[in-house]
Each structure stands twice: as structure tokens, then as C-alpha cells.
Write a structure and sequence with these properties.
There is one protein chain. The protein is of the alpha+beta class. The chain has a domain of 97 residues. It is built from three helices and eight strands. The chain starts with 6 loop residues before the first strand and ends with a strand.
Length: 145
Amino acid sequence: MSHGFPHVLLSDGRSITATQVCIDKTYGNILMGIPSDLMNESILRDVTHTMQRTFGTTRVFVVPPQIRRGDSIDLGVGRGVIQKAFIPPVRIAARFTSDPFGRGQSYSQLVVVWYQDSLDPLVGDHARECMEGLNWDELAEDFSF
């Protein structure tokens, strides 16, 4: 039973349920700069470590975000041109758990991070589609109560 928390049915028939959710602004801790490929690479590189601190030592999977391209900006004489590139503004991370699935299996968990334009629905179409195809057995870690 999901108790109101998001749940996703994976393509292999396994049901996973969010047991903990963390929501933040994608660019919330950025004090200066222009959203660009370079900045986004840094954000996506660091999100795994951020989520490991938030959720503990749990494994983390990041759904590849849909990046929107914007105008190019001239940075001034001798500094070049940069193209704006935006990750959706809302970062959602959730610890998903699964009951034992199949013979000899254990409880398992995985933190999944995704980016979307709003909080409604909490698991948007792009994130749900990517999660449904997760190779849970390969990505998740076993745990016991």
C-alpha cells in the first residue's frame, strides 16, 4: 500500500513506492552564473553526492533531464559566447523501496532523482517513463528491517 506516497509499476511487474521525498529548486544554491551546459554538468555531477548525504549511503539513480536551450549570450570582448541551457526548475528526489520480488529476493531500495517543471504531478510523465524501465535488480541495494 502506498499511503499516498508515489508508486511506480516497473516494466518487470515490480511495484516500487516512495518512502521519503526531498524537493528543492534546481538552481537554488547557485549564487552567480548563467544556466549553461557547463553549469548543468556540474549540478548533475554533484547531485549524487548531495543525495547520498541527504538519504544516507543509498545508491542513487538520476533520470536524465530534458534540457531546454535558450538564447546565446555574448560574454564580452575576448570571453566568447555561451548558449543558455536549462534543467527544469524543480528537483525531486525520493527513496523508493520494493518488497521482495520473486523467490529468494530481499527488500530493496534506490534513491531516484528527477527534474521537472512543476510539482503536479509529483512524478511527471518523463520521470515515470524512465522509472518504469529501470533495471531494479542491477541498480537497487538490498536491505532488511
